[in-house]
Amino acid sequence: MTFDRETAWQLLCEWTASPNLRKHALGVEAAMRAHAQRLGQDPESWGVVALLHDFDYEKNPTQETHVWVGARALREQGWPEAWVRAIEGHASYTGVPRDTDLARCLFAVDELSGFLVACALVRPDKTLANVPLDSVLKRMKEKAFARSVNRDEIRQGAEEIGMPLEEHIPFVRDAMAAIAGELGLAGAA
Ligand SMILES: [Fe+2]
Ligand SMILES: [Fe+2]
């Protein structure tokens, strides 16, 4: 078994039928590859971790099961321990510390990527690349908007990687916008 993108994608699709969850994985992957590049790390493996971080979620959507089930499966298959630890760290309730750049970046982009998708979808042009920073910041204060997205985690994540939110938001937006076609956020067809 090769622990590469192809294997990760297969595993994700095996466990996850939802197109939106697959898109979430792809969006997080794009953001993680950008962070890897920024930090001189390996975009391929960072992308794999992103693809796998929620692969168990569709079948295990509770705090009692999500991440626990997936991490056990990944360990059984022999995926690198540092990757599994980073995946565990994206859910704060596991208590696994985010003690690597990989883990900190994954946590930082996870909620933000979902929030950016929500911001793009309410635009008439449905174009992620056109979502302005100030509107994202404003929407973060609107409790009723995308209420399932945890704002505190968006802020905390940026803090943990030492990037001001005003930089991190456009950084993730632009990384995701580069694959906007796959995410369905490239605008009118
Ligand atoms: Fe998750
Ligand atoms: Fe996620």
End-to-end gap? 39 Å
What best-fitting shape do the alpha-carbon axes yield?
globular
> pLDDT under 50 segments (min length 5)?
none
How many helices? Answer: 10
List the helices and strands in order. HHHHHHHHHH
Structural class from helices and strands? Answer: mainly alpha
**Beta strand %:** under 5%
Summarize the main sheet.
none
For the secondary structure, the number of strands is 0
Any ligands, ions or cofactors bound here, and which? fe (ii) ion
Estimate percent helicity.
Answer: 55-70%
Q: For the residues shown, what is the average pLDDT?
A: 97
Estimated radius of gyration: 16 Å
Describe the structure.
By secondary structure, the protein is mostly helical. 61% of the residues lie in helices and 0% in strands. The protein has helices at residues 5-15, 19-38, 43-52, 68-77, 81-89, 101-121, 133-140, 151-160, 165-177, 180-183. α4 (68-77) runs antiparallel to α5 and α6 packs across α8 (151-160). It is globular. The protein starts with a helix and ends in a 6-residue tail after the last helix. Bound molecules: fe (ii) ion (2 copies). One fe (ii) ion (FE2) binds next to loops.
Write the layout of secondary structure elements.
Blueprint: H1 5-15, H2 19-38, H3 43-52, H4 68-77, H5 81-89, H6 101-121, H7 133-140, H8 151-160, H9 165-177, H10 180-183
The structure holds fe (ii) ion (2 copies).
Task: Summarize the entry for a quick read.
The protein has 189 residues and is mainly alpha-helical. 61% of the residues lie in helices and 0% in strands.
